[in-house]
Amino acid sequence: MDELEVDVVAEAEVDDPVLVEGLPGVGHVGTLAAEHLLEELDEESTLIRRVYSREFPPQVTIEDGIAELTCASIHAVSNPDGRDLLVLTGDHQAQTNAGHYGLTSAFLDIAAEFETTDIYSLGGVPTGELIEEYAVIGAVTDEARRDSLEEAGVEFREDEPAGGIVGVSGLLLGLGARRGFDAACLMGETSGYLVDPKSARAVLEVLEEAVGLDLAYDSLDERADEMEDVIGKIQEMEQQQQQQSMELPTDDDLRYIG
Amino acid sequence: MDELEVDVVAEAEVDDPVLVEGLPGVGHVGTLAAEHLLEELDEESTLIRRVYSREFPPQVTIEDGIAELTCASIHAVSNPDGRDLLVLTGDHQAQTNAGHYGLTSAFLDIAAEFETTDIYSLGGVPTGELIEEYAVIGAVTDEARRDSLEEAGVEFREDEPAGGIVGVSGLLLGLGARRGFDAACLMGETSGYLVDPKSARAVLEVLEEAVGLDLAYDSLDERADEMEDVIGKIQEMEQQQQQQSMELPTDDDLRYIG
Amino acid sequence: MDELEVDVVAEAEVDDPVLVEGLPGVGHVGTLAAEHLLEELDEESTLIRRVYSREFPPQVTIEDGIAELTCASIHAVSNPDGRDLLVLTGDHQAQTNAGHYGLTSAFLDIAAEFETTDIYSLGGVPTGELIEEYAVIGAVTDEARRDSLEEAGVEFREDEPAGGIVGVSGLLLGLGARRGFDAACLMGETSGYLVDPKSARAVLEVLEEAVGLDLAYDSLDERADEMEDVIGKIQEMEQQQQQQSMELPTDDDLRYIG
Amino acid sequence: MDELEVDVVAEAEVDDPVLVEGLPGVGHVGTLAAEHLLEELDEESTLIRRVYSREFPPQVTIEDGIAELTCASIHAVSNPDGRDLLVLTGDHQAQTNAGHYGLTSAFLDIAAEFETTDIYSLGGVPTGELIEEYAVIGAVTDEARRDSLEEAGVEFREDEPAGGIVGVSGLLLGLGARRGFDAACLMGETSGYLVDPKSARAVLEVLEEAVGLDLAYDSLDERADEMEDVIGKIQEMEQQQQQQSMELPTDDDLRYIG
User: Fold this and answer.
1) Measured between CB atoms, which of D171, D185, D252 is closest to B58?
2) Does A139 sit within 8 Å of C65, measured CB to CB?
3) Which CATH fold would you assign to the domain A4-216?
4) C4-215 maps to which CATH number?
5) According to the UniProt record, where is the region Disordered (chains A, B, C, D) (predicted)?
6) What pTM did the predictor assign?
7) How many other C-beta atoms are found inside a 10 Å radius of the C-beta of residue B81?
8) A with B: how many residue pairs have Cβ under 8 Å apart?
């Protein structure tokens, strides 16, 4: 295999499509959002490209005993409610810095092949604490785009995210701008500790307005409920531990007394 | 030396051979199996290729003072009881992700040179606990092959191995499928903590049926007995420690009493 | 994007310019100095080149929601008080060893394009303790240059810095000398624990004399005062802790008494 | 700078020279030996080549304020007492696996340029304890050479060194053999914890006999005496600590009593 290979799985007619990227990252927000999109628009979607690269981990995934080489996938979506989409997903990020640059360049080549001009990269931004209201933070390559995204509910904050945006989601903006793409990153706030379907929903609701989409959220809400249960149990355990530690003397107490 | 060099050590007549790979990994199952195969079929085996690569660790092994550069070896085996074999072994895996891709491609080139169409990669799958009955888990590139392997005793499980298959064993399936090879991975269950000759035997018994082989296991069973002794001693020590800790007060107890 | 790309942002007329480098490093001395230089000579400065590289971290920085791809910047400065300058700054160093060599070569190419012969790399040298008097340690490629720098207040010490100079600051001398540049590194002493504007000022004062510059230091002194406040608070806290530990018996004391 | 560059510093007439390598490693045995060799044969030595590489750490060393780019050096030695030598030394090893292969290939190219057929790589083999009698362990590419080295006092042991030989010292044998060189590695036993001039002397005494050399050891013995003093002080401190811990009750004792 060459360093990078793009398999043409199928061809598809898409009209002025928007590239939407959701690869693994903080809170799995990007992948959850992209996969939910494909699930909801299943009948309008066609897998058109697979991208293989030596920069991906050297492994196969196994489903029902069948091995599939690690890759990124691009689906074409004929969107009945708005602009057509190219949806980029996958199970892995590149494993080296240079690999992120190489893969992003390949993704932009495919976007260019389909005459895409607009890009949305989806992800999470870690806050370090559990979230009540899920804000969506934005970053853009072109100042002009900020207003319309603010109308769609995106917040632009002076110094956030403080560490910038790392990986393909960031480079789609950084390398994209250099090649003339108009790119935006939508980042759902998330604790950073847990897979976060609610944050993915917040991001998708912005996307619905930005590109014209009409999504149902039943399956994503179900996953969110499951996560709520998990969080509830963790909090319960923590409270019990705190109570116990207030009631009983600790080893250290005993040692001082001893 | 170039990035990768293949030395032609000898030529060999093999008829429609199957590539069998056993490189270092979990429980050394793959290497134990491949080396036992070569030991048992010593008279029918010829070392035909050595593969050197900058991706291997930069070192020589020393035996009786003689230095040998790290490499992978391929033996041709004229199998009197079934299909001829190419057996791929070695002491090391590649040291980088890209190296795994590069080496696997080189191994597939050699397989193609000998008009191989079928591949078996051998390895172990860690269970985290000591094994009583050694199941062999399978993964294939072509669904059609699953049935015949199930008849040979291989189990195919819905989500196993959960983390996929990493390294050359995985990529022989992943890259192999892309080049038209029909590949299967046979993974013996193993604790993951110890070198496991019993798991290697379980894997070889499947291979015996799959490609037609008639192997003796005396030397492998001997090594298994030695490992049993080791395990027995470890368990004894653990039991003694547990008894002692039940009979005697510990430091912590004393501190509480103090 | 290629492995390395240089964007021509603007052209500038500079006469026999000196390259001054200040990239991130110990105490941020180099970046503080280079950025202060550009701030003070703002009206005489033009951003002329941006250097992008796969060796930089794969990320964008965000300011007011606008994404900028990680890069190094080169400004041309028409210096009214002495020699013209090319000032090299940036937020990141290369992430691999080979990357440092590649980026430094690219920087030297740009220096050569503007017919630069002299280079100053600016940085900090860690002492491990808080500094009262900020000495500036020097290293040069050409012994002849040592005398004039000593006159400007630079100290040359027999075995310092003991570990040599690592990164672009070092390689501008090492690779620069091989290409015929006359390069010097000016290293301000700094504790190594804190961002150090005072050390940056010490380095700039040497540079003022070496290339002919007339800088105000108000903004840098302000930042130094802020850092003094931080240091003062840390020392206060440490003293309080020491006093407490002298007055009160510790855990260990209590245990012996127990 | 290219990935690897060889500077021709001077030319030298050498007759059928032996390549002797001493780069940093266990106990600094190799570098100590090679540097002592050059010191003792100073008048017969000429620096002929410098090898620069992106695989070396990106740094300059500073001596009296003068910067020198990290490199490996090759001196030609006109040996009045035996075979002429090429002595390879340096302050650094390559920083990646592939780098070791690349640098060793470059060193072998230089050896070939001077029509060298024989190679000695010098190093240390760690024993984990302080050494009384310094044995020298050997490894060779050609069995025939073992006898003559055994006569010179080298020991060949069945399974040593167990982990093989890593880095340039190993690859000079591994890659050297593939290119027709006759190479041997001489490894002085050393604790592995300290710089070990005595081990370097043991290795050099073998080399004296192997290639015909007549070396004085005053300066190396002096360094060995200095190290002995250091070891003596460490041992004294350890004994005092042991005595104290025998005489005084420890924290743990007191806690039990408490």
Assistant:
1) D171
2) yes
3) Rossmann fold (3.40.50)
4) 3.40.50.10900
5) 239-258
6) 0.88
7) 12
8) 91
